[in-house]
Amino acid sequence: MNPASVDIKDYLLTTGIDLTFATNLFIGMEPESPDDCATIFDTPGFGRDKFYDPTQQYHRPSIQVRVRNRSYTAGWGIIHSITEIIHNQTMVINGVYYSAMFCSIEPALLDYDENDRPRFVVTFDLQRSTGEPVTWEHIDYKTWLDIIK
After folding, report:
1. Choices 3.30.365.10, 3.30.2000.10, 3.30.450.20, 3.40.640.10: CATH for 4-148
2. Are 57 and 129 a contacting pair, CB within 8 Å?
3. Average pLDDT, the chain
4. What percent of the chain stands above pLDDT 70?
């Protein structure tokens, strides 16, 4: 399983947002240039869910996206676009099922770097599994009494 940052990078590259990996989109380390870029960091998430069925293993990492830009308003616009793209999605990325992707800390100004460029951050909590997605289709239109029979 890839680090969550790699999967989210690959997802962002399919969305049409003006980001290119290793040009203005990076993972794990923000370079000195270009001035305008986004970097995805793997950050501590929550512990794994505890199931009695070992085939159901959900990992709950989190990521932080940091956007740096020469323009405060342009940087703010990019971090909000990224938030709208990722928040509240479910999908398979690189063979991994993401059952939840939620913005847990809203976009905010982090600071100005040593070159006076504003940096914004947003944090996402994720839930993912390499197994088959759990669905509720088998219990549609049933009552609890029907389910426990």
Report:
1. 3.30.2000.10
2. yes
3. 89
4. 82
Residue with more model confidence, 141 or 70: 70
Write down the pTM of the prediction: 0.86
Q: Is the pLDDT of residue 55 over 80?
A: no
Q: What residues have CB less than 8 Å from 82, skipping those under 6 apart?
A: 12, 17, 38, 65, 67, 122
Q: Which two tokens stand for residue 28?
A: 């794990």
> Which stretches does DSSP call E strand in the chain?
25-27, 37-46, 60-68, 91-93, 96-112, 118-129
User: What pairs with residue 124 in β-bridges?
Assistant: 63, 103
